[in-house]
Write a structure and sequence with these properties.
Elements lengths: L10 H19 L33 E4 L7 E5 L3 E6 L8 E2 L5 E11 L10 E9 L3 E8 L15 E9 L1
Parallel strand pairs: 1-3, 2-8
Antiparallel strand pairs: 3-6, 4-7, 5-6, 7-8
Length: 168
Amino acid sequence: MPTRPDRRRSRPATGALLALVLTAGAAACSSGGGGLPASGGRPPATASTSASASGPGTPAAGAVTLDERSAGTAVRVRTGTAVTVLLHSTYWSIPAASAPKVLAPAAGGATSPGATCRPGGGCGTATARFTARQPGTARITAFRRSCGEARPCSPAQSSYDVTVAVTG
């Protein structure tokens, strides 16, 4: 009677391959989505301004760009200043201002996927542009539920809020 090959010997190799694939997939998902570092989900880039944005000091004029690093801060700008909010993930909602008479939307906001983004990866940006129209205070907010594919955000990572004080 001929003996049959023992198929159980090939299963540990299959199990090792499966473990390798799952480990690689988990590492990709834990990167924060959108190519962001897992620590805080913030981009390595800094906020930029053509005239420095300020807190209690002199208000900025010209153009101000805010990103994730601006979350939870207060910024002072002069009337006429262009304010751009650039959030580094398409999981963010389009940023919106609480007082459109103070901080008017300059154009419709948009999400733009990254050129090499896999579907569902969240890489890309959510952008909105505003113009400081009259003195007052407005809050710019955005929200997200996901911080990566199948990874919910913690409460600290799910909202974006910047207070903009416009001076004359």
